[in-house]
Specification:
mainly alpha; 365 residues
Length: 365
């Protein structure tokens, strides 16, 4: 049954990817796509970004676009860029499925790729020549290596620098698009709580330091800082006039879904989001519920231990009262103190076992 479901899921995923490819090769081009291609070509021509032309992005994505202009002139770089965007998206789908499999070891990982290829909300952005998809891909790779580090996975028994690799990919994603900063911030917080912050920070610092060394010879560091901090905010104020509302795909949309009213695609879109919200809410509280369950079991075991000890003490007290009458009070205090220390030790032991076994930080990522 699992094999059949896996096969069907793979076929559905291939169909969705084929639709992505066909639409990416025929869909109209947004003005922002030409802007990114223009910036990449100007950098290839030897002009200094931030200094010789208006530029308010990190250069990572545009360095990635520069080799495409070697394919020829005319529309060739544009079509090639769309094809490269599809390849990046296909790799992102694969990394998403691998990340799910890494956490669950289940065939359901294929469905993660199916959902990502289907969701209408980010569909357009995945098609267009934008840095978003590439930045998310590197951020996901950083997450994969960080989870491998949290799980203590080794390669042939050797210590592997997974945390440094995770930080390196996080740093590259920041040099492609700073929008991934919240995800990188969460990853750094997790590394700080797991006492592996230094290795992750070293990995992040490597690409950022290389960018700093590249930016210094440009000749105007203040202009670079302004272009990467204040200028994007000022430029995005203009786009608010023509913004596409994020809830556009949650209403009947004949242009996108291909049918009027509540089409099948629209209903499936709603179902996926509702299920995702419910699962996310459950996954958020599951580690705390598991912790309470462990503590409750520990309390039951301790109560049984306490009752058993009290019975043993009562029996011993009856026997000893005849022999050591004036020592009863001291014996009772000694027993209470030792029982208190033992209970504290049991609680600490259970808490440490729960922390090591749950791996809640890898679930949180």
């Amino acid at each position: 049954m699992k094999f059949f479901l896996s096969l069907v899921s793979c076929l559905v995923l291939l169909v969705f990817l084929w639709w992505h490819y066909r639409l990416g090769m025929t869909r109209y081009f947004d003005v922002d796509e030409f802007a990114h291609l223009s910036w990449g070509f100007q950098m290839l021509s030897g002009r200094k970004p931030y200094i010789d032309f208006l530029f308010f992005f990190p250069p990572g994505f545009h360095l990635f676009l520069m080799p495409l202009f070697a394919l020829g002139g005319g529309v060739m770089p544009i079509i090639a860029a769309r094809l490269v965007q599809f390849i990046i998206f296909a790799v992102l789908v694969g990394v998403t499925m691998f990340l799910f499999w890494l956490m669950r070891r289940s065939w359901v990982a294929i469905l993660a790729g199916v959902f990502l290829a289907f969701l209408p909300l980010p569909f357009d952005k995945f098609l267009e020549i934008r840095p978003d998809t590439l930045a998310i891909l590197f951020a996901m790779l950083g997450m994969v290596f960080q989870i491998l580090a949290l799980k203590g996975v080794t390669l042939r028994g050797r210590v592997t620098p997974y945390q440094i690799l995770a930080g390196f990919f996080y740093g590259i994603s920041l040099l492609i698009l700073p929008k991934v900063l919240p995800q990188v911030g969460v990853a750094m917080a997790v590394a700080l709580c797991t006492k592996k912050f230094r290795s992750l920070l070293v990995g992040i610092a490597i690409p950022l330091a290389l960018f700093g060394l590249w930016a210094l010879p440009l000749g105007n560091l203040d202009q670079v800082i302004y272009s990467l901090t204040k200028l994007p905010v000022e430029a995005n104020k203009i786009s608010q006039t023509f913004i596409m509302m994020p809830d556009l795909f949650f209403y009947p949309n004949t242009t996108f879904y291909g049918a009027p009213g509540w089409a099948i695609g629209l209903l499936v879109n709603h179902a996926i989001w509702i299920i995702a919200i419910v699962v996310a809410a459950y996954r958020l509280v599951a580690p705390f519920l598991a912790g309470k369950s462990e503590i409750r079991i520990s309390n039951q075991q301790n109560s049984k231990f306490e009752i058993r000890n009290s019975k043993q003490y009562q029996n011993s007290n009856v026997l000893n009262s005849k022999r050591f009458g004036h020592w009863n009070f001291d014996h009772l205090n000694l027993f209470r103190a030792s029982d208190f220390v033992l209970r504290i030790y049991n609680y600490m032991l259970r808490a440490s076992d729960l922390d090591n076994r749950s791996m809640v930080w890898s679930e949180f990522l």
